[in-house]
Specification:
Layout lengths: L1 E11 L5 E6 L2 E5 L4 E6 L2 H4 L13 E10 L7 E8 L4 E8 L8
Antiparallel strand pairs: 1-2, 1-7, 2-3, 3-5, 4-5, 5-6, 6-7
Length: 104
């Protein structure tokens, strides 16, 4: 499992659900329904102050867990991606190890 932060391009549906990722030189299509949750961030450690009227993205990060593949024959990869509401940018924050079935 890898934990880091790297910029990624995300194409979303009109409702905001991720449909495709462009990361590095590869394009990935979302292959399963993504999961969304919010995580608190320690904004007081990252920001000098909270300006009046600024709220979106200040306290919570919007995180999506997506399963995607580069093509129909490739393995599924699981990514956690974060949406930064104040900038409109996406970042990969975690790549999960592939789960391999053990033969009996």
């Amino acid at each position: 499992m890898g934990l880091f932060s790297e910029s990624v391009e995300v194409v979303c549906s009109p409702s905001g659900q991720p449909l495709r990722l462009q990361w590095g030189n590869r394009s990935y299509k979302i292959a399963a329904d993504p999961l969304r949750w919010y995580e608190r961030r320690k904004w007081w450690e990252e920001e000098l102050r909270a300006e009046r009227g600024r709220g979106a993205g200040l306290v919570d990060h919007e995180i999506w867990r997506v399963q995607a593949r580069a093509n129909e024959q490739s393995e599924l990869r699981t990514f956690d991606i974060a949406y930064q509401a104040d900038t409109g940018r996406w970042r990969i924050v975690k790549i999960h190890d592939a789960v391999r079935e053990l033969s009996a």
